[in-house]
Design goal:
single chain, alpha+beta, 2 domains, two-stranded antiparallel ribbon, 12 helices, 13 strands, 20% strand, transmembrane, Lipoprotein-release_system
Length: 402
């Protein structure tokens, strides 16, 4: 152990009586520890929310989606579908026909988001974990079925076991003047509800139907679609696959990944995380200011000791390092204690989920957390920088004592 560290350790641990400076040191240590712990926990919660949203979107949305740059539909020719299917990394391709429609069931009605898909959509097995009731079935023995979201089921009081009451879908005809009193102003299709799924409130108004039914309602031709959803093979590089697909579809269509479709949400989470991190960093800074006052008072108290050190041949650099080390001991003791407690809380929450969401309608029971090594490193660097800044001036003052 070198001399500055030994003297700083003696100042911190070997006081015969607890003075005001001692209690101020402990308060500074606790403040830094609590701030560090809070920073680790809060950043981990934001990481968990980000990961939770990715899992939610993965349950319903495809890895890649082809959309028109202008308008809401385009011609998905068989040649285009074949070329996309033959692109490296592509596993399943689904032509989607989607628009708003009116749904009626018994005496109830509501506006839904009608999504027409073929059997390849169910082959992705994304909805298997989200099924609440019934079966995932779109067409069987010439009978058309509908899979409805839990929000639609609640709005219309749908029973998946009732095969006698049909779900009626209405869509305005393009060549008719719109009027709710004109029965010929709507295209109509009746389907049997086969299953109910629940993912998240964002998807609570969706109704999945066979693509042939949706095309008939919307008046689309066989090759028209509103989007193409592409499921990639496991282990495929998404960026490389996205570029390859974009080269195939050309300039009139755009390929977007799942993250691209929800970029606004992810940006909001990142901004909130940044603002919270800045706020907690200021809290750590305020707690570290106590270190400044602690060291300043310690310099005043130890003036005679400093003069003796100079008389024994100490340099200004040695005296400065003594008080920098004293500040590091106070701050880093609190920081690493808070860091350890924060990591323990996050691991315990991840394993046992003892802090619940507090809402009955939540899709998960406990707050999601995910530790990220970059957050831990950032927190440690932040504490070290703040400690150095708040310790430098008292240490320099001590070095200038004559």
């Amino acid at each position: 152990m070198n001399l500055p560290t030994w003297i700083a350790r003696r100042y911190f641990f070997s006081r015969k009586k607890r003075s005001f400076i001692s209690w101020l040191s402990i308060l500074s240590m606790l403040g830094v520890g609590v701030g560090t712990m809070a920073l680790v926990v809060v950043l981990s919660v934001f990481n968990g929310m980000d990961e939770l949203n990715r899992q939610i979107f993965k349950t319903f949305e495809a890895d890649m989606t082809v959309l028109p740059k202008q308008g809401k539909r385009f011609m998905a020719s068989p040649e285009l579908l074949t070329r996309l299917q033959q692109t490296a990394g592509v596993n399943l391709l689904t032509a989607v026909v989607q628009d708003n429609a009116l749904a009626r069931y018994a005496n109830g009605e509501t506006v839904v988001r009608l999504k027409g898909v073929d059997d390849s959509y169910l082959q992705r097995k994304q909805l298997d974990s989200a099924l609440l009731e019934g079966k995932l079935r779109l067409r069987d023995r010439g009978v058309n079925y509908a899979i409805v979201a839990d929000g639609v089921r609640n709005d219309l009081s749908i029973s998946a076991v009732d095969i006698l009451t049909p779900l009626e879908i209405l869509y305005p005809q393009s060549d008719q003047s719109f009027s709710v009193l004109n029965p010929n102003a709507f295209n109509r299709e009746s389907l049997t509800v086969s299953g109910v799924f629940f993912i998240e409130s964002k998807y609570d108004n969706f109704v999945l139907v066979p693509s042939i039914v949706a095309r008939s309602l919307f008046g689309y031709s066989t090759n028209e679609a509103t989007s193409l959803e592409i499921q990639l093979k496991p282990g495929t590089d998404e960026n490389a696959a996205k570029q390859a697909l974009q080269d195939v579809v050309g300039d009139k269509l755009i390929v977007q990944s799942r993250d691209d479709l929800n970029v606004d949400l992810y940006r909001t989470i990142r901004i909130e995380k940044l603002l919270v991190a800045i706020t907690l960093a200021f809290i750590i800074l305020v707690a570290s200011i106590n270190i400044f006052f602690t060291l300043s008072m310690l310099v005043i108290e130890k003036k005679e000791d400093i003069r003796i050190l100079y008389a024994l041949g100490a340099t200004t650099g040695l005296v400065r390092r003594i008080f920098l080390t004293e500040g590091a001991i106070i701050a880093l003791t609190g920081a690493f204690t808070g860091l350890a407690i924060g990591v323990f809380i996050c691991l315990a929450q991840e394993q046992y989920g003892f802090i619940g969401m507090g809402t009955v309608s939540s899709i998960i029971d406990a707050y999601p957390v995910r530790l990220d090594s970059s957050d831990i490193i950032m927190t440690a660097v932040l504490v070290i920088v703040v400690t150095f800044l708040t310790s430098w001036f008292p240490a320099q003052r001590a070095a200038n004592v004559k």
